[in-house]
Amino acid sequence: MLNDNHQPFLIRGYRRSDREAVRKLCCDTGFLGDPIDPVYEDRELFADFLTTYYTDHEAESCFLLEVDGQISGYLLGSRKPLRNQLYALYQNVWLFFRALTRYFRYNQRSRRFIRWILMYGWREVPAQPRRVPHFHINLLPEARKVSTTRALMSAYLSYLYRSGEKRVCGQILPTRAPANDRPKTRQTNEAFSGRIGAFC
Asked: Domain 9-199 belongs to what topology?
């Protein structure tokens, strides 16, 4: 397939050998499409929170975008929402205590991010149907094209159709403005406070 710039790309299923590349991409795009590092320094915990269930427990629902042989995007999905929710209960407790043991070694921005997550983060995520498949998608800036996004979505929706699913739920978080258009004094927690939109 060709993207909007006539550059060839490939959509394929996730493989175990892709795990580190997916985790890196998650962190490279984790702050509204930008790297998470200026906001939260602990890439290990950040990637654990957002990718581990999908890559380790429901890999068959994950699809990758390759451009020039490099992983440039992913769609991590779940068609087993109850299992995902049970895993999240365990994972949230485990990650909370891991973050707590590291909290005083974090820099000021990372501590602020942890406080924001605990106090406000849960309010920003809209309720979604408990028995409906879901997904989230991340692409590197140069791979954010209509063609690549459509191809990833088509692969996942076709997979759901073949599996007998009739509904799917997703969440949309607006991307950030280009760096040179952002106010210099904008606070990290303000940047995170935009409402996430859900569609099902």
From this structure: Aminopeptidase (3.40.630)
